[in-house]
Amino acid sequence: MRFDESYSGKVFIMSRATYEESDAVIYGMPMDWTVSFRPGSRFGPAKIREASLGLEEYSPYMDKHLEEVNYFDAGDIPLPFGNAARSLDMVEEFVDKLLADGKYPLGLGGEHLLSWPIFKAIHKKHPDVAILHFDAHADLREEYEGEPLSHSTPIRKACSLIGAENVYSFGIRSGMREEFQFAKESGMNMFKFEVVEPLKKVLPTLAGRPVYVTIDIDVLDPAHAPGTGTAEAGGITSKELLEAIMAIAKSDVKVVGSDLVEVAPNYDPSEQTQITASKMIREMLLGFVK
């Protein structure tokens, strides 16, 4: 199953031939309809796939080879240009199907608002889910200039859906004062600036629980990932993000899905952002898909 049966675009390296034989499904969400600064993340999924062709199939981090994971790249969901509400419905419907079929969903963005319909689908399947959120931005606004469907709102929506105490944000270094006040007063778990050390303290408290992992590439410092729509100085290194992924993979949590969003390749002529993103996807496949 692909969205377009004549699909001839590149797929993530070592994607299996059929949907039916897969344990995990990679899918693209080429949408940047609500961005507030620089558009272009709709081109992220295709460029991440293209960059994956330069990866080694073996990971020295996980000591595993991609041949050990059965995954299928379904291509990009054909989201209607400019129609955010319908696009989000289509993502939720697709992830609903993946979960009903027993597949592990791994989404490629696209803007971060796309995580919101995934959260809803995951919550229907796993009501006790916790969310691990890696980002430069709090994403805790209720709206942006009067628009509730904005890439600055998905984590606030998640707090309302699953309870703020079940949301864990790492690496946050940007947001309105009101967002940080909400984090403090609501009981959500926000860790400013740092990722690895607070994550290692949190993971034992989530042992045995289903967790969903959402990574905004701008959690990385622009020196490591300049190709993103809203870059923020003062971020973590790619090595630290790899350490975080490994810590989750080696913990006792049950990862039930993940995404990586906000790669906007046009702002990075060196292509290092999509190269980095593709490596993170490799580690997520090897570490999270059981």
Automatic annotation (TrEMBL):
Binding positions (Mn(2+)): H112, D135, H137, D139, D216, D218
Entry annotated with the keyword Signal: no
Cofactor(s) named in the record: Mn(2+)
Coiled-coil zones: none
GO biological process assignments: putrescine biosynthetic process from arginine, via agmatine; spermidine biosynthetic process
Free-text cofactor note: Binds 2 manganese ions per subunit.
Catalytic activities: agmatine + H2O = urea + putrescine
GO MF annotation: an example: agmatinase activity
The EC number(s) this enzyme carries: 3.5.3.11
Domain of life: Bacteria
Broadest EC class assigned to this enzyme: hydrolase
Pfam families: Arginase
Biochemical pathway: Amine and polyamine biosynthesis; putrescine biosynthesis via agmatine pathway; putrescine from agmatine: step 1/1
Keywords: Hydrolase, Manganese, Metal-binding, Polyamine biosynthesis, Putrescine biosynthesis, Spermidine biosynthesis
Record family assignment: Belongs to the arginase family. Agmatinase subfamily.
Job description of the protein: Catalyzes the formation of putrescine from agmatine.
Name of the featured protein: Agmatinase
Source organism phylogeny: Bacteria, Bacillati, Bacillota, Bacilli, Bacillales
